[in-house]
Amino acid sequence: MKSELMEEMSPRLVRECVLQALYQLEFHPDNIELVIQERGEKLTGSFHQFYLRMIEGIKEHQSQINDLIKRYLKSGWSVDRISVVDRAILQIAIYELLYEVRTPKGVVINEAVDLAKIYSGVESSRFVNGVLGNIVKDIGERLSDKTE
C-alpha cells in the first residue's frame, strides 16, 4: 500500500493540496494549523516538505504576490474580485516563479493552467495563462536588465 501511495505522489498532487488548503483558509482563517495539517496528510517525505514550504511561502509573501497579481489585472479589477480558486492558483504559480526557481517557468504555467481547467473552467485557464504569461515576460525582462 505504501508503494502505491508513493507512485501517486507528485508535484501536481502537492499543488492540488496547496490549492485545497488555500481555498479552505479563505473560509476558515482561524484554523490555519488544522487546515494545513489535514490537507497535507496524504503527503510524505520531500512532497510533504514541498507542501509546507509552498504554504508557508505563500502566506509569508502573500502581500507581494497579490500586488503582482493586481499589476496584471484589467483596469478596475482588484485581487478580491478574482474567484477564490483562480486567486489561489495564481498565488501558487507566482510563488513558484519567484521562490522555487528550480521549477522551469513553462512547467509552472502549464501546471497552473491545468489546475484552472480541473478546478475552475476554460475561461479561468485562459485568464490564468494570460496573467502568468505577462508576469513571466516582465520577470524575464527585469532579470535581463539587471545582468546587462
Automatic annotation (TrEMBL):
<keyword id="KW-0694">RNA-binding</keyword>
<keyword id="KW-0805">Transcription regulation</keyword>
<dbReference type="GO" id="GO:0006353">
    <property type="term" value="P:DNA-templated transcription termination"/>
</dbReference>
<dbReference type="GO" id="GO:0005829">
    <property type="term" value="C:cytosol"/>
</dbReference>
<dbReference type="InterPro" id="IPR035926">
    <property type="entry name" value="NusB-like_sf"/>
</dbReference>
<feature type="domain" description="NusB/RsmB/TIM44">
    <location>
        <begin position="14"/>
        <end position="137"/>
    </location>
</feature>
<protein>
    <recommendedName>
        <fullName>Transcription antitermination protein NusB</fullName>
    </recommendedName>
</protein>
<keyword id="KW-0889">Transcription antitermination</keyword>
<dbReference type="InterPro" id="IPR006027">
    <property type="entry name" value="NusB_RsmB_TIM44"/>
</dbReference>
<dbReference type="Pfam" id="PF01029">
    <property type="entry name" value="NusB"/>
</dbReference>
<dbReference type="GO" id="GO:0031564">
    <property type="term" value="P:transcription antitermination"/>
</dbReference>
<dbReference type="InterPro" id="IPR011605">
    <property type="entry name" value="NusB_fam"/>
</dbReference>
<comment type="function">
    <text>Involved in transcription antitermination. Required for transcription of ribosomal RNA (rRNA) genes. Binds specifically to the boxA antiterminator sequence of the ribosomal RNA (rrn) operons.</text>
</comment>
<dbReference type="GO" id="GO:0003723">
    <property type="term" value="F:RNA binding"/>
</dbReference>
<comment type="similarity">
    <text>Belongs to the NusB family.</text>
</comment>
<keyword id="KW-0804">Transcription</keyword>
